[in-house]
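Summary for the lay section of the report: proteins are chains of building blocks that fold into shapes. Here we show the chain for Putative protease and then a coded description of the shape we predicted for it.
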Amino acid sequence: MKREIELLAPAGSYEALVAAVQNGADAIYMGGTEFSARAYASNFSRERIKEAVEYAHIRGVKIYFAVNTLVKDSEINKLLEYINFLYNTDVDAVIVQDLGALKLIKELYPDFEIHCSTQMTLHNSYGVKLLKELGAKRVVLARELGLEEIDVIKRNTGVELEVFVHGALCVSYSGQCLMSSFIGGRSGNRGKCAQPCRKKYELIDSNNQHGKGRPFYYMSMRDLNTLENISALINSGVTSFKIEGRMKKPQYVAAIVGAYRKAIDLYLSTGKELKDKEIQKKIAQVFNRKFTKGYLFSERNKQVINIDKPNNSGIYLGKVSAFNKALGRFTISLEDDIVHGDGIEVWGKSETGGTVNKIYKNNRLTHEAKKGETVEIELKDIICTGDEVYKTLDSQLIKELEKTYEKDIENKKNSIKGNIKIEIGKPIELTLYDDLKNTVNLKSTSTVEKAQKVALTEEKLLTNLKKLNNTPFELVSMDIDLKPECAVPLSVINELRRDAVNSLIELRRNRNNRKQQKLKDVDSEPIYKKINTNKEFKLSVKVEDLDQLKVVLQKKVDRIYFSDIDNISKALDLCRNSNCEIYLKTPNIIKDNEFKLYDSVIKNNQLDGVLVGDLGMLKYLKENYSSLNIVTDMTLNIFNSFTVKEFSELKVSGVTLSQELDLKSISNLNVDTDIEIECIVYGKTSVMTTEYCPAINENVCDKKCNSCKEPKHKLNWSLRDEKDYSFPISRDALGRTVIYNSHPIFMGDKIENFLNSKVNVLRLDITNESPDSILSIMEIYNNRRYFDVEQLGFKYTRGHYFKDIE
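The coded shape description reads as follows.
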């Protein structure tokens, strides 16, 4: 099989990069200390970036650099300075999330390859086609797609597709998670996720009744592992197999990259899958949260979640059969080998762990113990009989992995070919050329003499030319033109070979042969600063059903966003009778096979427009309903003027700004256009959209997500955290789970803060408010009068309007 597959490895540090390269990665993705979605990885300084690019390029490995955070106007020129540095450093491609950043990079550096991050939530053909038109060469698909869905996208777009094949999974669609941001001010979209999904929650119903009766890790996903399914992935049309792990240690990177290298090579050469229990055990030992094949292979709900433990599960060692409190030792019959220096964790009534310092066998101290033996292990903590013990670190395995990327180790060998001509009275001519079409031609400084005794043989010549030892090359062929009776000192051959190899290395450093570019600034200063105290705002309201709509229409409202497709015709009639615009609100996740459902709704109803939640629906409407008004929803993460301008060029009529944007940044938007700028000023923010539903863990779940017996949009379940905040759970129009913030945003007494901005539409998002609450809230926003917020009768948040996110 000749298909080329890229194995893409993570590197959060220089040592991890070396580990990845030496264990067989074809490309590395990494980030710096700026604009990276893994801000808490070690990451790379600028000097280290230069070293990393050279190291990788010499060995034929590409570098993709993550600048995949949302960017404010005030940061744009800093971003472009960074892009300029990366371009001149010969980084092969940049990975972006921000659509405005994509627009600028393509305009200013047209030959710089752009990959669209998984943070862009790309999950259908239309969205991928749009980004292809905007200049992206590759997209990183959402981790919630199955192989059949990926195949459809490949056939419909022809774009390079990158798919995660191993490592940690986010419970929310990437780019759609605001939970960390709203709980602690640390945004995943800005690279600083605090991982609230790895914390314990209680699942409670609308009557405040407990689900399982105590907290569990209801949102902690298992780790993805597709090692034994390489054939299906290759045949799906995926270009790049991506391993997650920029926060992981070099030993982890070495183990996982090495395993997938073997699996890919085995299948491409023999057509067979890698079925190796020892390799599976190794990758489980270095890190796992239990494994899943994920949505790639249609695993669902309980198969993708691990509600019992959010961190490394390690390898099961057995159960505690006795505990000697006086000596601080527990007894265990081993299910796996253990040695001094291994790490263990004990789970059950106790949750403890540490390094194995003392092992006793028959009451005698020993350095190691084997599977099947009964031993005592010293651990100074309270341990209970029946507790489960796991080996979370195998010290011998770690040493074994470290040897694969030791200093001066060169496992990554690139094939080179050459020819050599040796003739009496002339200099030796040596040519070397590599797989990247680099060619080196060298001549010796001295001429060849006639042999007095022993002439040089082809065998001896070839043996010395192949002595590439600790270089990143192996000589696979050499055409030799050796004339008779030639005498050449081997030192001359060796020197010529070394010089040729060094010259080849120099050529490989600058893989892309770019001309150095000068820094290009752009105008990102605000042009609209004058306060307009007489400014009029449109008022839009998003509702979930007809009952809410009827209540809302009792008050003044300019536009309705309506999401219940089963009742859209009735909603349209109600709005027409109230002289109010009605827009269909589409979900922020809509897969290829779901567009036909919305096609019939749009075709059969005279809508004023559509509120689109993803790029795919935007592209679909432009292709099929070009005259329809389109407003983009907050899920498209519009964060700066350049993104607004991009959407303006795509002919949308309005945009909803990100709910992570603060008022200062909103006021500084440099937008000179007739496009409507909308902000959500009331409502429970959608902080997650997931394929997984926590209610699967309760008897109420019927496991039929698209026809769930829990009514759509009804917030009957909540996740309650350790601080007693409850996050309501609902479903969107297509049955996917939506988790909302515990408190609604409320800005009814702060509308004057939007006066000195380009914002001209204020939006209220209604979820589960009572009719009286809806009327009261609308009265506040309609009248814009002073009132005492202490009299509101509910807890609220200002979101990020007055609090900048990290």
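Put simply, here is one thing we learned. The longest strand covers residues 315-324.
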